[in-house]
Amino acid sequence: SQELEQSPQSLIVQEGKNLTINCTSSKTLYGLYWYKQKYGEGLIFLMMLQKGGEEKSHEKITAKLDEKKQQSSLHITASQPSHAGIYLCGADNGGGSQGNLIFGKGTKLSVKP
Amino acid sequence: ETGVTQSPTHLIKTRGQQVTLRCSSQSGHNTVSWYQQALGQGPQFIFQYYREEENGRGNFPPRFSGLQFPNYSSELNVNALELDDSALYLCASSKGGGEGEKLFFGSGTQLSVL
């Protein structure tokens, strides 16, 4: 079965610094999603990537899917305290049903003012 | 906010009891998926309902069951609760169809089993 491994598990950065979170899949990715979660709350959709080499940006967050479609990265530029939270990558599990995603364990981001 | 609402927000039950969690999907969405998220883990897919029928199930025992109603709201029922069922339960709605559409998540129900 497919597994997603995220690194690092946790990250503490100074406000204003850049950072990158990685998500590696054991199988080819056909749909890769990035979500953000505040502790104990629901997931907020950030971006979806489907094509090899695809890159998307929203405000100061950029996500990229590599050409081989087995690794994705999420890059935050000039981090702010509002970026703090848990970042989760998810992938279509190939079961044919739309809502069947597998997730990594998440990367906990803390931003120090 | 996503427009997906879950109730209750918190719940405490005793081992062996039964629990029902509720989810109202976002307007225009006909598909609801349920996830279990244990502390420090990513969400795990329980099952999905599309137009009132189960449309995919993860690796969860039959004591986890669900319903979807004509208005596309949904329930998750768990019988014979076990301590390991303590987790955040998330529901997510989407427009329906194949893969590749984003899910809109509710804020979750935190279930504690004592």
Brief description of this entry?
With 113 residues, chain A is mainly β.
Topology record:
The complex is a heterodimer of chains A (113) and B (114).
Chain A (H helix, E strand, L loop, with lengths): L3 E4 L2 E5 L4 E7 L6 E6 L5 E7 L5 E4 L2 E5 L5 E6 L8 E8 L8 E3 L3 E6 L1
Parallel strand pairs in A: 2-11
Antiparallel strand pairs in A: 1-3, 3-8, 4-5, 4-9, 6-7, 7-8, 9-10, 9-11
Chain B lengths: L4 E3 L2 E4 L5 E6 L6 E7 L6 E7 L2 E5 L6 E5 L5 E5 L8 E8 L9 E2 L3 E5 L1
Parallel strand pairs in B: 2-11
Antiparallel strand pairs in B: 1-3, 3-8, 4-5, 4-9, 5-6, 7-8, 9-10, 9-11
What does this structure look like?
The complex is a heterodimer of chains A (113) and B (114). Chain A is mainly beta and 113 residues long. Chain A has no helices and eleven strands. Chain A has strands at 4-7, 10-14, 19-25, 32-37, 43-49, 55-58, 61-65, 71-76, 85-92, 101-103, 107-112. In chain A, strands 2, 4, 5, 9, 10 and 11 form a six-stranded mixed β-sheet that branches. Chain A has a five-stranded antiparallel β-sheet with strand order 1-3-8-7-6, with no helix packed on it. In chain A, strand 7 (61-65) and strand 8 (71-76) form a beta hairpin. Chain A is globular, with a radius of gyration of 13 Å. Chain B is mostly beta strands and 114 residues long. In chain B, the strands form two sheets. In chain B, strands 2, 4, 5, 6, 9, 10 and 11 form a seven-stranded mixed β-sheet that branches. Chain B is globular and about 40 Å long. Classes of the chains: A mainly beta (113), B mainly beta (114). The A-B interface holds A 4, 30-31, 33, 35, 40-45, 48, 50, 88, 90, 92-106 and B 2, 4, 31-33, 40-45, 48, 50, 55-56, 58, 88, 90, 92, 94, 96-108, 110.
